[in-house]
Specification:
Order of helices and strands: HEEEHHEEEHE
Mean pLDDT: 81
Largest sheet: 7 strands, antiparallel
Structural class: alpha+beta
Oligomer: single chain
Length: 255
């Protein structure tokens, strides 16, 4: 279930409720900016494995489609607080390289202010920053059930990519972590410990994927429609080698 961002509301305590949306303008990080109020943009770094839950929903859908056509090429860069991941649909790599592997994990991210939001969800932070108006915090719960990735040690060079957009590519997607997630705004003093993804749906919640189907995917160790939302990606610089998607990763500049 997905609800427009402007209607996202309160999830707090054990009960779920609704908070009126603030009319204050959202924080915006314009392309190339090095200043966002309340954020040290010099400290904002593009992760090697960026989360996609604050990313544009249509981009998640397009990514899921492209990965079925071949190795996905992207342009990944940062300008101040603006961390961007641009899909390049007219640049595609070899087909049938991605392999599904079971991978079970859960994750919770809570951002109480703009600084925490840009630190924890830099990709797409400006898309959801308006939810932090007033005394609200943003909570996102994810359920990962598998990875769709290149075998460890795979190497993709510029010569493996075909299409007119390939000159703009900086990375290819080495692996996608798939599953489901739920996200909502909450009163910062009453951020619930309840997992939003498994809680009953309520008005004001953004949810992609179904909890019951995700449990089946984990139990059976298979890819199941209904729990295959791209939640995170592992990126490989053009010409670099793929690491195991289960390996811990740090923070490094893009490119």
């Amino acid at each position: 279930m997905s609800v427009a961002r402007s209607s996202l509301a309160l999830i707090g305590g054990a009960a779920l409720g609704i908070v009126a949306c603030s009319k204050q303008p959202p924080v915006r990080a314009a392309h190339g900016t090095d200043h966002v109020e309340g954020v040290d943009c010099a400290a904002v770094k593009p992760p090697v494995e960026p989360d996609l839950i604050a990313w544009d929903p249509s981009s998640r859908v397009q990514l899921d489609k492209l990965r079925r056509e071949g190795v996905v090429a992207v342009r990944y860069e940062a300008h101040g607080c603006d961390v961007s991941l641009e899909l390049l649909p007219r640049c595609i790599g070899p087909k049938n390289r991605y392999v599904y592997s079971p991978y079970s994990a859960t994750d919770t991210k809570i951002a109480r202010d703009a600084s925490e939001l840009f630190a924890k969800l830099p990709l797409g932070a400006a898309n959801v920053s308006s939810l932090l108006d007033g005394r609200r915090a943003l909570r996102a719960d994810t359920k990962l059930v598998g990875t769709v990735g290149l075998p460890a040690g795979s190497t993709i060079t510029e010569y493996d990519l075909v299409g007119p957009e390939c000159k703009r590519a900086t990375h290819v997607i080495g692996a996608l972590y798939v599953g489901g997630f739920a996200m909502a705004a909450a009163d910062a003093r009453r951020v619930s410990s309840t997992d939003l993804f498994t809680a009953p749906p309520t008005e004001g919640m953004t949810r992609e994927g179904q909890a019951q189907i995700c449990e089946r995917a984990v139990t059976e160790g298979i890819a199941v429609p209904g729990c295959s939302v791209p939640l995170r990606v592992s990126l490989i610089p053009i010409g670099g080698g793929a690491a195991s998607p289960a390996e811990p990763t740090g923070v490094a500049p893009a490119g």
